[in-house]
From TrEMBL:
It comes from the Eukaryota. SUPFAM superfamilies: MFS general substrate transporter. The keyword Transport applies. This is Solute carrier family 29 member 2. It comes from Paramormyrops kingsleyae. InterPro entries: ENT1/ENT2, Eqnu_transpt, MFS_trans_sf. It is a multi-pass membrane protein. The lineage of its organism: Eukaryota, Metazoa, Chordata, Craniata, Vertebrata.
Amino acid sequence: MGTPGNTPVDRGCLMGIIFFIFGLGTLLPWNFFVTALMYFENRLNKSEWSNSTAIVRKEYYFKNWMTLLSQLPLLLFTLLNSFLYQWVSEKVRIGGSLVFILLFFILTAVLVKVPMEEDQFFSVTMATIWFINSFGAVMQGSLFGLVGLLPRKYSSIFMSGQGLAGTFAALAMVLAIASKAERETAALGYFITPCVGTLVNLMCYVTLPRLEFAQFYLNKKMSYELEVAVELLPREDGQVEDSVPSLLVADSGAPHPDAITCDTQQTLLTLQPLQTSCDKKSSVKDILKKIWVMAFCVTFVFTVTLSVFPAVTADVKTKFSGTWESYFTPVCCFLTFNVMDFTGRSLTFCVKWPPKESPLFPVLVIARLAFIPLLMLCNVPGHRYLPVLISHDAAFTVIMMLFSISSGYCMCLSMTYAPQ
């Protein structure tokens, strides 16, 4: 094991690779369902012909329901995760979530070949989206807790992995279209891909406790984790539940949290000065006072982004016809967004401007509101009250590039500043 004077080395950047894969895995569910919009809408919004006119039997508003049933459990279970860690071990929260996500993706892949009534298929799909995102929120919150124990650069690595998840899904969709395979076969191959990705995440998580680098940083800040647990949710008898990630501690030789006394905590504190101690703990209120600006920035970035992506951007149509028509949404909407979002996240490795204390940063975050009317004025058929002022494909693509690179950069920067 390493010591403060002999910090273990992340050999082969293995720890960075694992957390990059973790970041990729946390957003795979959302992105694979979003980019498969055409598959779901083709299966749900079937048309009948009457007097040579196509009439949709029933409009399911799949994009709207999918966005709601993705983001609502994400919010609820992210908040619930603040309390779950007191009663549910980190091994169960992360490992169990990965197993259930894998099972639900397998179910989604199997349903490609199962004929079902539209209403039944819609209900099963919505339930799957709800549960996948619920488990994804628990896993994501737990992984953010783990990456917060590591040096700051690993937070950026983790966030970059999240940015690549969408690119991965968009490329899979483009390849499925380009393969010219029968629709069901292409969809089956598309949904098998996240099954493999989730399985790789599970293997990485099993590997994690064997890394000396991970054990060192976990033990180094164990006392801090215990003090946060005491402050946030103490038990009636004054003892603390097992809040330390048990899987990582398993092979580290560290004492169990129940056996750690105040004297032991003070010994651990000598490894690295911390702002907390046994006599003086930071309250949740004090913490919120310090991070509220960055918390607002993260929330506002997500709010602006999700208000138009994909509900509005996926409805933008090309002005051209032919083969390009089938590629327009996957390429100009999903692939462009995710590539540039990943680019924005990656920029934080070399550029961190404005600085954390600068009032200019929240101003730039709020300025992203301008993208909402810009995207709504693009070529979206069916708008009753808004004219189409931006009809060209190139103009829409440029707006999408600026929209997504600013989303990735501002979100990653605020997530990097908050732990500081």
